[in-house]
C-alpha cells in the first residue's frame, strides 16, 4: 500500500489543468465582396457614371441611404482575425477587425456626384463560383 498518497495530488492538478485548457484561432469576412479593390474596377466618372452602372459592377450596396437631394451607396467589407487562450482560472483573447469601405453619392437623376474608398483595405478575393 502507498504510504504517501498526497504526493500524487500536484500531478493530478497539473493534468486537470492541461485537460481543461484550450486555444482558439479564427478569421473570417463579412459584408459584401470588395470588388472596388479589383484590378478590373471601371474608372468611375463624376457627372457621367450612373447608379445602375455602379450597382451592376459592385452589386447591391451594404446600405442604401436616401438623403434629401441625393442617394448614397455604402459598401462595406469586414475582416476579423483573432486568437484566445482558455485556462481553468484565467482566459485571454484578442481580435483585430478591419473595415474596407466604398461610398458613392448620386444626385436625384442617379448620376455620380463623388465617391471615395477607405484608406484601410482588405485583400480582394473574388467569390468562388458554385
Q: Explain this structure to me?
A:
With 130 residues, the protein is α+β, with helices and mostly antiparallel strands. The chain has one domain (22-117). Helix content is 15%, strand content 42%. Strands 1, 2, 3, 4 and 5 form a 5-stranded antiparallel sheet that branches. Strand 2 and strand 3 form a beta hairpin. The longest helix has 12 residues, at 9-20.
Mean pLDDT across every amino acid position? 88
- Secondary-structure content class: alpha+beta
Compute the number of structural domains. 1
Shape: rod-shaped
> What percentage of the residues does DSSP assign to strands (E)?
35-45%
Number of strands: 5
Low-confidence stretches: none
Please give the alpha-carbon distance between the first and last residues: 67 Å
Main beta sheet, described?
5 strands, antiparallel
Helix segment tally: 2
Helix share bin = 10-25%
Radius of gyration: 26 Å
Query: SSE order, as H and E?
Result: HEHEEEE
Summarize the structure.
The protein has 130 residues and is an alpha+beta fold.
Keywords:
single chain; 130 residues; alpha+beta; 5-stranded antiparallel beta sheet; 2 helices; rod-shaped
Amino acid at each position: 500500500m502507498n504510504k504517501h498518497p498526497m504526493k500524487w495530488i500536484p500531478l493530478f492538478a497539473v493534468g486537470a489543468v492541461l485537460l481543461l485548457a484550450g486555444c482558439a484561432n479564427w478569421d473570417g469576412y463579412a459584408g459584401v465582396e470588395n470588388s472596388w479593390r479589383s484590378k478590373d474596377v471601371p474608372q468611375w466618372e463624376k457627372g457621367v457614371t450612373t447608379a445602375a452602372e455602379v450597382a451592376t459592377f459592385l452589386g447591391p450596396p451594404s446600405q442604401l441611404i436616401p438623403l434629401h437631394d441625393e442617394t448614397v451607396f455604402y459598401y462595406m467589407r469586414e475582416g476579423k482575425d483573432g486568437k484566445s487562450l482558455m485556462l481553468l482560472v484565467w482566459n485571454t483573447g484578442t481580435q483585430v477587425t478591419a473595415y474596407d469601405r466604398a461610398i458613392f453619392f448620386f444626385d436625384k437623376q442617379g448620376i455620380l456626384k463623388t465617391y471615395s474608398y477607405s484608406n484601410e483595405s482588405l485583400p480582394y478575393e473574388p467569390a468562388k463560383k458554385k
